[in-house]
Batch of 2 targets.
Target 1
Amino acid sequence: MKYMLLMQFSAAGTDFPGIDTWSPEEIRAHIGFMQEVNDKLVSDGEMVDGQGLGGPAQVRIVRAGADGAPVVTEGPFAETKEFLAGYWVVDCDTPDRAVQIAAHISTAPGPGGRPLNMPIEVHPVMSAPPVEL
Amino acid sequence: MEDLLRELAPQVLGVLARRFGDFATAEDAVQEALLAAATQWPTEGTPTNPRGWLIQVGYRRMIELVRSEQARRRREDLVAQRDPYDRQHAPAADEELTAERDDTLVLLFLCCHPALAPASAVALTLRAVGGLSTAEIARAFLVPEATMAQRISRAKQRIRSSGLPFRMPDEAERADRLAAVRQVLYLIFTEGHTSTAGPDLRRVDLAVEAIRLTRALHARLPTDSESAGLLALMLLTEARSPARTGPSGELISLADQDRTRWDAAAIAEGVALVTWALPRGPVGPYQVQAAIAALHDEAPSTGATDWPQILALYEVLERLSGSPVVSLNRAVATAMVHGPEAGLAALDALTDDPRLAGHHRLSAARAHLHEMAGDHTRAIADYRAAAGRTSSLPEQRYLTMRAARLAAVAHQPTTKD
């Protein structure tokens, strides 16, 4: 079963400042933790894909204009309290295991090495039907 | 040639693994022998005894691999201790060893080790017994090749560290392991049968591969009625697959399928198998499910289906398996025999089962029975609830469509002239 884990940066649910205010050591520890998570998922044979995403300033919102041409606006993110910071797609045996991985990711270290406790959304990837209707 | 290699690969692997007592190294040696065959045979012609050819090449490669190991001396001593003198020579190419004919079966038993997670056992079985490449297996399961390679290598490590010798498990253990073998084969089948991951021509057809492997199991254990039942169940289920999806991949329920598109030959074979298996005993869940599938497959329409017989079989299956999903199916069969109210009452009895709580199939079954009873308001609500709970995209579309269809009928203005 595949699951998509979405890592939300949430200023509302947690009380840590943006990563641009962390010390280099803190950032290194955070990135190192994420690298370990990825390596472990690969060696366990559970990793499908995973990426960190650019911050809100780099996000573009696209709509089709009247003639089908793209109309691009920057993200209206000036006061955004939540945004998508990264994702994983994992292939694991049980829903419980996906939750376990998400909980581990949520312990990624932040300022002062304290766990960030970021909210991680666990979405089952829609698949084919398990049994005959 | 690909089919021939796939057929021979497990036999060769069995011979090498048995001779050296080292599954992981034997697997590497076989992969190299297959590679050599794939490059040489097309230009130099297929040898008269392809199995012997592969064994000899694999055997030579195996010796090279063993020698190049750092602990070479230790390993060779080990091999020498294990093997009497007469085993230290490559077999003659035309040597026919009857005792080794069961190697495919031994491999199946080895790959379906109870210590392995089902996903790993499936991958290892497809690789070692099915002869599929890691890339093919990865593609079939839509994961990166590196992920699948790790999964397989971890499974092999697990087998190695379990210290399990390469031989048939003893009589006491064999029944349990055979159950695991059937479960893994059925997992491969359901993965293939339900996958709608697009018409990729290069995609491995897992349902076909599962049927091929189960056929091999049945051929080697011809008196085992439950293995025959499993093969029958697969054939009878797969026979309906041409009719179970529409042009855009949408699900078509059993009642609405065009039965002329079902595979008559597969149905005949499945029916014959289950007819043979059932009276042999002991009756297991695969045989009963095959019997139910046979009744569906032989019926000219849903209405003309032998529902009383199906209901009786579900009662047997319920006693055998105790699964709430089986009870749910029995409730639906009850509705077909005794009317929707009786079916709904049977479903109500299941509502408190925590294993079914929030399960979309409970809502879906209730929706179907409400629709049958003409209560469209409740049917729509249950279809929508079920659609919200399933994690299957085709199923979600199907349920949403059923709800939308009933809602459209409900909203049509009634004509009063």
Target 2
Amino acid sequence: MSTTEMTGEVTTPAETRPPARTDRPRVRRLLSTAGPLTALLGLCAVFAALAPGFATASNAMAIVEQAAIPVVLAMGATLVVLVGGVDLSIEGVMAASGLTFVLLAANSVNGNDLGLLAVLIALGVGLLFGVANGVLHVVARVPSFLVTLGTWFVGLGVATVLFGTATPQLADPSLAAWAGGHWLGLPVVVVFALAAVAVTVVLCKGTRLGMHTYAIGGDESTSRLAGVPVGRTKIILFAVAGLLSGLGGVLATIRLGVGDVSVGSGSLFLTLSAVVVGGTLLSGGRGGPLHSLVGVLLLVVLGNGLLLSGASPYIQQGAQGLIIVVAVIATGWPARSRLRVVK
Amino acid sequence: MTPATRSVRAAVRAVGVAAAISVMASSAVACSTGSERTERDGAAVDRGDMVMVSEVRSLTNPYEAAWVQGSRAYAESLGIELKVIVYGGDSQNALSQLQSVLAAGKTVLLNINPNTSADTPAIVRAVQNSGGCAVTQWSKPSDLHPWDVGNGWASYVAYDGVQQGADTGKALVDSLGGTGGVIALQGLLANEISQTRFQGFQQAMDGQSGVTLLDDQPADFDRNKAYTTTQTLLNKYGDQVNGIWAATDSMALGALQAVREAGRAGEIKIASAADATPEGLGAIADGELLSTYTTDPYFNGAMGLAICYQAMTGEIDVASLPPENREFYVDQSLITASNVDRFRTVPSDEEIVRSVQDPFSRITGPVAR
């Protein structure tokens, strides 16, 4: 997470441009929307040519399946970033929800067997964390990255306490079957991911809450003056993000078949990178769930393609980092005057 | 200046102050450990003045949870207080928590699995200067030896990763009948024990000609990463894959999940080179994994404390111990379906205490460097 230097100055909006250049913003918007998608298609074309086994149905399915849980997480992260905040608590919430779930479903450690109710309670835990993030950020006026940094470790702590001393193994056959099972001809995790995308898109594009979200990200103080309920909107968005992190934790736990405190390790990096690479501005107000969907696919395809093309592991890591830096510069460049701080 | 920037500035300032304080504190600690030398004069220490410390990375790792259980059994058998320090993979935290126990004034008997080999000198010197005794396990800088530091660092205990890799690699080759293709999953590329295991695995592969290594990838000891990597590699190599070798149980179990989802469970053989986690042992008993390796964590957790206890009570004299009792490999065993049941039962406290009556009983040789 980069915060630009804090000069403390209130930057004025750029001077009004001469009318001859009115088409520039539209071109920029098109670039930031179509850029990542073009990059994704380009990357697929390159790997299809270079890497044996990339352009096959089974590999396409593997990519979609590997992208599913990050997509669920990225939907929540996108909502928070759209209002100019950031949610760093993803991995902690995943751990707390995942362990809550596995200890309430049939498992090897205790006698609980709540079935689907265990899933719901675990999602509730995620929701609680999200509400806590939102309330602390809005009411206590603590920057969101500090609040969520704290709840990240609170989540890990809760998970460690729940874990105890023995690894709890999931013993509920119907839930364990989600790991390799299919619904409607699609892997279960992919169904959840598509549902998460659909809900988030509807929320962003078709509701008053979504309108407020973009307004706050665009200019918070003006929105406040215009009567937008800034605090309430932010709390709801953080709550949804927490809920989705919880869902990600449950799905990842089912995939592993055991409760594990490190179930979310690496998810934060992948999720936030995907949001940025997809073209959602860290300062808020531009981008959206579909951008992040493209962002996740881009990173998963990159990792998958590099592995298949036999690149050295060191190059694989370096390439991912490089792509993120380039994407941040490309998406942030037109808005660099506004990027004063990650709120 | 908006409220947001103001609060961020305040936060930055707070972090800066905290950092400055911690730097000052750690330099003060460094001064104090450097100046007050209260090294023992060889007189036996009274049991009531001792405190035993078992220091590990996390308690959610089955190996370390068992190690702490071994420490606890031994400390309870003597009626000595045991402090368990869990430092969560944070070297600074590992040292600062230890410092606060040392500062309490009792004679410390430390058995530690350090975070990285670079942490060893600071840890053993701090313990030695407070008049305590330390046994470190798993990793240390290769040019630093207990006899160079002093009697406060009784022993360094290590496990032969090359042997683990070679034996489990051979088990995999044998199970394939000597022909086929295999994939290897390493841990973190920069991790020494992961490197030595892979080196051993390569030795096993060099010793025969029928099995080819299709690909080797780092999965960072991470179960999820092992799962996605295996899934991708199975797509790449398809039916050429007959076996998978992984440096730890958790990665082997991640690979197993991917193999199951590809519908090739049982057909692809999977060998793990270390850890003997309960889940891994269960998978071996079910015939889903081929092998793992145990270094008996219960013994390791008690043995380090036993060496220090005997040194403190004068039963052994650290200064006159031969080098092979100061730095050594400990016996370990390959676990396969034929002997897995023996390792699935948790030893009783009495068995653990009995196994460390002579803490040097399982030495297999000097540490190879």
